[in-house]
């Protein structure tokens, strides 16, 4: 009937398949839901129009059935009164009513099938819509996680970890060499300081001895 032409792929395909084909899955999911909601509204409106026509034809069928019974009863009354010509006219009208009844019956049967088909399609579309809504958050989260993994992979692919660790080892060796050199200088400095102190002690002792001798002479000792 053309109502579901734009969303035929949504009825035939799984929502995940559509997501896989989309360049921007989050936007695609939202657009799918918007499209399906619009189609549900359009289909529901079309169903209302179809059901209106269907109910109208059903009323015409009921009227034709009543007319058929009415002219049949009139034909019987005419015959009971000996009015055969009037009975024939009544039967002519009865035949016309019967033909209309049969025509309306065919229309009712055909339109009833069409109405039911539209109802079934709307039900299917609503189920797909609910499925899309329930999966929306999950699919968007999965898409974001995939993007994050992709970015991390690209970031790590640009880093030469082997080279980085070699550079760190060289830096460690240089620092260790500097530390050893500093320790050596400290040791040498300590030795020089010890030797200087020893010479200074000897000089101080000589000065003290000189003063002691001087004091002894003054005291006559």
UniProtKB/TrEMBL annotation:
Record's signal peptide: none
Residue stretches in coiled coil: 54-142
- For whether the record's keyword set contains Coiled coil, the answer is yes
Concerning Pfam families, the annotation shows: PspA_IM30 (PF04012)
What keywords are annotated for this sequence in UniProt?
Answer: Coiled coil
Name the PANTHER family for this protein.
MEMBRANE-ASSOCIATED PROTEIN VIPP1, CHLOROPLASTIC, PHAGE SHOCK PROTEIN A
Q: What family does the Swiss-Prot or TrEMBL record give for this protein? A: Belongs to the PspA/Vipp/IM30 family.
Q: Mind telling me what this protein is named?
A: PspA/IM30 family protein
């Amino acid at each position: 009937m053309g109502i579901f032409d734009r969303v035929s792929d949504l009825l035939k395909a799984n929502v995940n398949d559509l997501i896989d084909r989309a360049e921007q899955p989050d936007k695609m999911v939202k657009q799918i839901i918007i499209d399906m909601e619009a189609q549900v509204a359009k289909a529901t409106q079309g169903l209302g129009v179809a059901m209106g026509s269907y109910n109208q034809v059903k009323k015409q069928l009921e009227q034709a059935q009543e007319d058929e019974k009415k002219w049949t009863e009139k034909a019987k009354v005419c015959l009971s009164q000996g009015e055969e010509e009037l009975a024939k006219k009544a039967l002519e009208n009865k035949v016309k009513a019967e033909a209309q009844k049969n025509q309306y019956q065919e229309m009712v049967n055909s339109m009833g099938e069409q109405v039911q088909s539209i109802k079934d399609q709307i039900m299917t579309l609503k189920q797909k819509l609910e499925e899309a809504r329930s999966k929306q958050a999950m699919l968007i989260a999965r898409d974001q996680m995939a993007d994050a993994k992709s970015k991390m992979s690209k970031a790590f692919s640009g880093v030469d970890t082997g080279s980085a660790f070699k550079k760190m080892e060289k830096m460690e060796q240089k620092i260790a060499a500097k530390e050893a050199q500093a320790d050596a200088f400290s040791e040498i400095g300590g030795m020089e300081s010890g030797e200087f102190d020893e010479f200074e002690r000897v000089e101080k002792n000589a000065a003290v001895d000189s003063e002691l001798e001087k004091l002894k002479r003054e005291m006559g000792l």
